[in-house]
Write a structure and sequence with these properties.
Blueprint lengths: L2 E5 L10 H4 L11 H4 L7 H14 L4 H8 L8 H10 L4 E10 H10 L8 E5 L1 E3 L5 E3 L16 H14 L6 E6 L5 H4 L7 E4 L4 H11 L7 E2 L5 H13 L1
Parallel strand pairs: 1-2, 1-6, 2-3, 6-7, 7-8
Antiparallel strand pairs: 4-5
Helix pairs in contact: 5-10
């Protein structure tokens, strides 16, 4: 009996968007209008690349960024939830699928000593160049019309499950915890026995209820959460069964 927990990162594990939080490092803690207005829908990663160039041009160093990023608050109850998962790792495999980047997620998880809770992190690869600028790349290429150009979370989840099956690992239930519009695609991949846990009042919850109203509901069960304590209560029931 093993359960797979799939987490989004921004507004799910942390209570903010890591990509917009980094703007606190910019001069006067804001970006020039022409940079802000250069974002094109579906091309967030390219936009963040330009933001990182701007920060580098303005002398923002790796240490400044790291200091700023590790002040992001975790979502209410999340520290307790991750502690609980860490204590029950024999029952839970746990992955992150996020449109953030490897550098930000590593900094935040390591600072809070939660890196070992997660078996794998799937996110856009980032690194500092020899000149000290942060660079970010697309996670992968895909053919899904619903998802941003750099990341289809359904494809990530499907490939992970296929790889686990090859290793002889299958899951009693998948629990998908997220908040955003790009979490809908993987949620629609979940089966009847799985559960989607959208954050209350966020885009994913709204999109799931729109589908139900248009009589094409998702196959899986749905349980909204406002604090990660709600998620922990569900997991405690799950392992008692």
């Amino acid at each position: 009996m093993k359960f797979l927990l799939v987490f989004d990162f921004d507004h799910t594990i942390i209570d903010e968007n890591s990509d917009t939080w980094i703007v606190k490092c910019a001069p006067e803690r804001k970006l020039p209008n022409e940079l802000r207005n250069s974002y094109q829908p579906g091309h967030w990663t390219e936009y963040m690349g330009r933001v990182f160039v701007y920060l580098g041009d303005n002398g923002v160093k790796e240490d400044d960024m790291k200091r700023t990023m590790t002040t992001i608050p975790f979502t209410a109850g999340m520290i307790d939830l991750l502690g609980f998962i860490g204590e029950n790792k024999e029952l839970f495999d746990c992955i992150i699928v996020s449109d953030s980047n490897t550098v930000f997620i590593d900094w935040i998880l390591k600072a809070a000593d939660f890196r070992k809770v997660f078996d794998e992190v799937f996110t856009n690869p980032a690194a500092f160049s020899s000149t000290g600028y942060l660079t970010v790349q697309h996670f992968h290429a895909h053919h899904c019309a619903k998802c941003p150009i750099n990341l289809c979370k359904r494809k990530v989840l499907k490939e992970f499950l296929d790889k686990q099956l090859e290793r002889g690992v299958s899951y009693t239930q998948i629990v998908y915890i997220g908040d955003g519009g790009n979490d809908l695609c993987p949620v629609m991949f979940l089966k009847k026995n799985d559960i989607a846990m959208p954050r209350q009042g966020y885009t994913l919850e709204k999109k799931i209820s729109q589908l139900a109203q248009s009589l094409s509901p998702v196959q899986c069960s749905v349980l909204a959460w406002s604090s990660a304590i709600d998620i922990m209560s569900y997991l405690k029931l799950l392992i008692k069964e």
